[in-house]
Amino acid sequence: MKSFKGLPGIALAAIVSVSAGAALADYPERTINMIVPFSAGGPNDTIARAIAAGLEEELGQTIIVENKPGAAGNIGTLGVVRAEPDGYTILFVSSGPMLINTTLYSNAGYDPRTDLTPIALAGTMPNVVLVNPSIGVTDMKGLAEYAKANEGVSYGSAGAGNTTHIAGFMLSRELDDRLMHVPYPGTAAAMKDLLGGHISLVFSDTMTAMPYIESGALTALAVAPERSAVLPDVPTLAEQGFDIEDINPAFGILGPPDMPEDVVDTLNDAIQATLDSPEMTALMARLGMERAPIRTSVEFADYIRSEVDRLGEMVRLTGVTID
Prior knowledge:
Blueprint: H1 9-25, E1 32-36, H2 43-59, E2 63-67, H3 74-81, E3 89-94, H4 95-104, E4 117-124, E5 127-131, H5 140-149, E6 154-157, H6 163-174, E7 180-183, H7 187-195, E8 201-205, H8 206-215, E9 219-224, E10 250-255, H9 261-275, H10 278-287, E11 290-291, H11 297-318
Parallel strand pairs: 1-2, 1-3, 6-7, 6-8
Antiparallel strand pairs: 3-10, 4-10, 4-11, 5-8, 5-9
């Protein structure tokens, strides 16, 4: 090993600077692990794997997608928070861990505003209000009348504090608090009970909702916040007179705290190129996913700070806290 003993300070600093620059310029040199803090098969996993495939093309390295579910996404997220900030461990995540859990949990173990490095916001997915056809409702006016005429009209969610819970809570407020919340351990369980007629309605993302709508098993009453290309004939909540804030799920890529700026820029450039590719554009269209107008990591950081505050206030309105 060479010794730098006796070199002037300026010369030594120059060597260190050149070495660091070379290290960043060579990124990535090996496999990148993308952590998805949810089980396989859902929207997070589906979108993450598609983006990972595109990143392999853009970066010339293997991207391994690892599912690490638990505690509404907190377990996998904490693993990334504690990882080395070298760009070889990144996180693909949705609104819960990215924007909500820091308020929902009395101690989530991290704060997304300070303990993660924002890399890129991938997009958002509209919410759909779904009901079982057996209740005979085809629009929001009909749902309001149904809720007024029947006791115990219930909405299911993918868990307390989840975006589907917050959306249902806000809708219930518009209906004079006539809806009863039934939390489930995930979307699949809520959809099963909706199909079975055990609950009256569910807020769902478009990817999950579409097969049930297309088969006629469930009826879509409204979308939010805007009309969706995959459901062009379904009006928005606002169009039907319901003033509910935007609570649709968002998806982003983040890393451990203190990642080098050059590494963040390299990843962001590759992610933007992937999202703009014909293949990804077609997939997002099929899923009903909207491309985010936010393109830089700096804008993404601002978005996270703003949304944590906005959604945190909604979580507090529900009165739910998880220890």
